[in-house]
Amino acid sequence: MIWPDREAKRLKERNLPLEWADDMKTPSGRIHVGSLRGVIVHDLIYKALKDIGVKTKFSYVFNDMDPMDGMPAYLDKNKWGKYMGQPLYKIPSPEPGFKSFADYFAQEFISVFNSINCHPQIIWSSELHRSGKMNEVIRLILDKADVVRDIYKKVVKKERSPDWYPYNPICEKCGKIGTTKVFKWDGKYVYYRCEPKMVEWAEGCGHEGHVEPINENGKLVWKLDWPAHWKVIGITVESSGKDHMSAGGSYDMGVHFCKEILGTVAPDALGGYEWFTIGGKKMSSSKGIGSSAKEVSQILPPELLRFLLVRTPIKTHLDFDPVGDTIPNLFDDYDRCLDAYFLKLENNLPKDKAGEVAADYARIIELSEVNPLPNSRLYIPRFRTIANLLKTKNNNLTVFFETQKKDKLSIEEKAILEERIKYANIYLEKYVREDVNSKTVSKIFVPSELQKKFTLQLINQLECLKNKDDKNEIQQVVFECIKSERIKPKNAFEIIYQTLTGKSFGPKIGDLIINLGFDKAISLLKNVAQNKK
């Protein structure tokens, strides 16, 4: 049983009338791919709960009331600097056709997670405030500001002055929310100053005023704003990254605020989840650091991107580096799980432990569904073979795979092949070439004398084959030569692949030789075998 099903089974035992899973994000710039981890975690819980008959909902909150507190590297500071400190939903969109700065970046992210079959109810924090739904909880927290200060002191050992209140009004003069500080609450109005030097990323105008803490007049500070949303929406399940889950972190504080102020229970956090990074890089939406969700969604088919996230246990750090063999390996893993799914359809899963593993693989495919899964086995062309064939300029891939299948490809199989060709071309253009041109320049391959001796023996055996189009016979000859020449398989494969593809890897050798053409492959092998030092 994989983790979403285990967690759903545990949550079901609570017998709540409704399990409401939710995730949140501040749309302060292009939303990085790491944020997809949270979307998938909650989508999986939602779907696993539905599968076992639990009444459930799934939502995604965009905290568009938050201030612009970082300048994305791809925006002009001279044009956008004046908006620093203003609420994101009041800042204009970088492109026409969107309601605001927040809406522009949020819609890009929505399109990505919709494409991988995540369709939560979208909730805008600004609309919650505008509707008045946040008013009661804001008043309750302000009335108990002394308890809030005590919790800060007790949990994070941070002393708050008696005139500190956890609320930021929007300045009536300059429109900024990130620079205002409340110093008094009389039960009806908050009294505030727009501080010129309160934060490094924005300058307040110095205005002093008072407003009612209702509707769109302002918002709670983050550590109170999060549990306030939990209460108002009715959230019962919300996980988060490990940075929020540490002792004294946002979630820990939220638990105390729920219990001691809001009179409710904090959502189940599933223990938190590990980060999703690209090439080990820490990412930031507001600073434009790391790969955006949109960028990564353009290098993998939707079902592979979803699979990448689904197959990774919630407590495992996921670092995805598309350079090298990562993408071909991902496709291989997907195909392995897809085969288990076909075995399940055919009621042919193995027994005992192997059957349990295969059943988990099949379940991963079911939860990775983007488009309806096939209801019977399909022939799946291997991505790695496609990429290698494209490198050898073989454009007749349909014929090649029909030869492998020993039958015509169906409409569905041709569609899979065309999609994989598309993404193989992207992979070859973006990542194989970049790998070759990286700072670490590959050494020129120089075969050893043993490798040359092995190659000569291989050539002799191949030329003796009666059926030179039988890939299985070719494979058998390779292994017989490895054994007879007492060469390590790694070194044998190295000279074959380096000679025929210019790389240290490639498709199965039988496929490779047939695709290149038997005579051409033999000619290339002879050239390298006869090249004396």
What brief labels describe this structure?
elongated, 533 residues, 8% strand, mainly alpha, 10 strands, three-stranded parallel β-sheet, three-stranded antiparallel β-sheet, single chain, 22 helices, 48% helix, Arc Repressor Mutant, subunit A
Would you tell me the overall average pLDDT? 91
How much is the radius of gyration in Å? 29 Å
Low-confidence blocks of residues: 285-289, 434-442
Measured between the Cα atoms of the first and last residue, the distance is 57 Å
As a percent range, the share of helical residues equals: 40-55%
β-sheet strand percentage: 5-15%
Silhouette: elongated
Instruction: Name the structural class.
Output: mainly alpha
Please count the beta strands (DSSP E, at least 2 residues each): 10
Order of adjacent strands in the largest pleated sheet: 1-2-3
Q: Count of DSSP helices?
A: 22
Q: What oligomeric arrangement do these chains adopt?
A: single chain
Biggest β-sheet strands, sense, barrel? 3 strands, parallel
